[in-house]
TrEMBL record:
Pathway: Cell wall biogenesis; peptidoglycan biosynthesis. It comes from Microbispora oryzae. ATP binds at residues 109-115. Gene3D superfamilies: Mur ligase, C-terminal domain, Mur-like, catalytic domain, MurE/MurF, N-terminal domain. It comes from the Bacteria. Belongs to the MurCDEF family. MurF subfamily. One of its GO terms (molecular function) is ATP binding. Keywords: ATP-binding, Cell cycle, Cell division, Cell shape, Cell wall biogenesis/degradation, Cytoplasm, Ligase, Nucleotide-binding, Peptidoglycan synthesis. This is UDP-N-acetylmuramoyl-tripeptide--D-alanyl-D-alanine ligase. It is found in: Cytoplasm. The gene is murF. It catalyses: D-alanyl-D-alanine + UDP-N-acetyl-alpha-D-muramoyl-L-alanyl-gamma-D-glutamyl-meso-2,6-diaminopimelate + ATP = UDP-N-acetyl-alpha-D-muramoyl-L-alanyl-gamma-D-glutamyl-meso-2,6-diaminopimeloyl-D-alanyl-D-alanine + ADP + phosphate + H(+). Its EC number is 6.3.2.10.
Length: 459
């Protein structure tokens, strides 16, 4: 973050100083919304959530070194009091961007955003100072917090942009107007809040390319018809990527090794180069191509891009995170979140990874699937059976039971079990696992199956 005095910040966000001894005190470090992540010289943004109110932690944040608290009311310690903390943090981020000039890259999609963001950051940071979204901090608070980590030396600002409803991306791009916009795919994640189906999701995701300037770049997935339908919604230059022959950034000769890691020939307008990913699953090829398309638009050559992808490693927890236990059990933790698209991709990747080894799937609910939720869970149950998983543990009431019923009805030899909750799933999995097994754990984040995966990994 570029240094700013409390007086300057108050003017930018339209706030008033309260209990501040020195209005010229400089804020020299990034902001945080978690008091445990406050760093000396930073700013603590006190937000009220469903489980906790940041205002209750204001004093502790100051003790940890925060210069002041951005708050909606006086908190008894140095504060910048505003009407709306979320709006204020966005205004501050927009102001900071006006003081520096990085290339802002926005990326969105129904699945694969975080992995693609991590790949892209690792390609770009080899060449210039890069700031990228931490974990999946991609919403109205996470995005401005990422922006506030940038400074005058930052050349690339990689921003994952989530959209839970129409208008979200318009808001986020208003804070950080992108020069390059990458759209990965359109699926059923958040369909419950966006409308009746994928067309409504596409309408929301397309807000990103609408925000691009005429001299910017829209990176569109040539293999997704809904993404291709966004071409008419942007003024920017369009660069297609994917596995289709018409894509200018594409993969040829795709193959998987014995650890289910993808290798391919990367083709860009500047030439071709071999890529061997360290991530498991063929679906990672499209994520890597998305990163390569952005890097191509920014002027990097094919060899530079391939070298970055070859060196890239998984950065974010809970996304195809692999732990090998001493007894030979392989735990694949993909429990950060789930949609039908990511569930299918994960199951296929694990099946490829396992080879002839015994496979166990511990699966919970996929959230926000609207009226089609039960049918989509049943589809996953049939896929588990079709891929010849040995064991399915369906976790939770409601739709996961449809998953279990469908797997049983497929009569493919899969042993189907149900668990009421995460604790029950852990007990069952612990009892059923055998040395050498591969166990896949996945559900929407609110189910909390990540705790099960971590416990199994540490067993």
């Amino acid at each position: 973050m570029i240094p700013m005095t409390l007086n300057t910040i108050a003017r930018v966000v339209g706030g008033r100083l309260c209990d501040v001894r020195d209005p010229q005190a400089p804020v020299t470090a990034p902001a945080a919304v978690d008091s445990r992540e406050v760093v000396p010289g930073g700013l603590f943004a006190a937000t009220a959530g469903a489980r906790a109110d940041g205002h209750d932690y204001a004093a502790g944040a100051i003790e940890s070194g925060a210069v002041a608290v951005l708050a909606a009311r006086p908190v008894g310690v140095p504060a910048l009091v505003v009407e709306d903390v979320q709006l204020a943090i966005g205004l501050l981020a927009r102001h900071l961007l006006g003081q520096i000039s990085p290339a802002v890259i926005g990326l969105t999609g129904s699945v694969g955003k975080t992995t693609t963001k991590d790949l892209l950051a690792q390609v770009l940071e080899r060449h210039a100072a890069t700031v990228a979204t931490d974990r999946s901090f991609n919403n109205e608070l996470g995005l401005p917090l990422t922006v506030l980590r940038a400074d005058a030396a930052t050349r690339y600002l990689v921003l994952e942009m989530g959209a839970g409803r129409k208008g979200d991306l318009t808001y986020l791009t208003g804070i950080a107007p992108p020069r390059a916009g990458l759209v990965l795919n359109v699926g059923t994640a958040h369909v419950e809040r966006m409308g009746a189906g994928p067309a409504d999701v596409a309408e929301a995701k397309g807000e990103l390319v609408e925000a691009l300037p005429a001299d910017g770049f829209a990176l569109l997935n040539a293999d997704d018809p809904y993404v291709m339908g966004m071409a008419g919604r942007t003024r920017a230059q369009i660069l297609l990527y994917g596995r289709s022959a018409e894509a200018r950034v594409r993969a040829e000769d795709v193959r998987l090794d014995d650890r289910a890691r993808a290798a391919f020939e990367l083709v860009t307008p500047s030439g071709r180069a071999p890529v061997r990913l360290d991530l498991i699953g063929e679906h990672q090829v499209t994520n890597a191509l998305g990163a390569a398309a952005v890097a191509t638009a920014l002027g990097l050559g094919v060899t530079e891009i391939a070298d970055g992808l070859n060196a890239a490693r998984r950065r974010s927890a809970g996304r195809m995170e692999i732990v090998e236990r001493p007894d030979g059990v392989t735990v694949v933790d993909d429990a950060y979140n789930a949609s039908p698209e990511s569930m299918r991709a994960g199951l296929r990747a694990v099946r490829a990874l396992a080879g002839a080894r015994r496979t166990v799937a511990v699966l919970g609910a996929m959230g926000q699937q609207a009226a089609a939720s039960r049918a989509r869970h049943a589809e996953i149950g049939r896929l588990v059976a079709g891929l010849r998983f040995d064991v399915l543990i369906a976790v939770g009431p409601g739709d996961p039971l449809a998953m279990a019923e469908a797997a049983r009805a497929a009569n493919a030899g899969v042993a189907v079990h149900t668990a009421d909750d995460v604790a029950g799933a852990l007990t069952l999995a612990t009892a059923l696992l055998e040395p050498g097994d591969v166990v896949f754990v996945k559900a929407s984040s609110e189910i909390g199956l990540g705790a099960c995966a971590r416990a199994l990994a540490g067993a």
